[in-house]
Amino acid sequence: MPSDPRSPVSPSGRLPAGVLGRDYLKFLQLSVDDEFPVEESLDDVALEDALAAIRCGSMRAVRPAMKIFFDGCQFWIASHFHRYEAARRLGARHQEFWCEIQPGPKDHAVRYASRIPGILRFRRDPSTPAG
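^ thats the sequence. predicted structure below, dont judge the formating
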């Protein structure tokens, strides 16, 4: 509940003290919602570019910033999943990414990502008929 003083996200929408609007975050700090079938929905060219950037040590300089939502506890990825996946595949657990961080729960990251055309396809429950 946002009006609760113990709530991780302030009611004013400002970031908690010490969390910048744009900053570097490490791979190990980032979380991906289980609904995202990351490997199935990545652009192969973007993934190869991200793999190359990590291998040559230039990922910190890659722009634009990854969109991240912070719920007071976890940083949820909402864009540029190919960068995260490249670091995962290479075992680059301490890779840093330039991120735009804003307050919000995991649901905000899911909603934001679902609006990116052609980037993500959500896993569908096999018992749910295709619409």
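Helices lie at 44-55, 81-90, 106-114.
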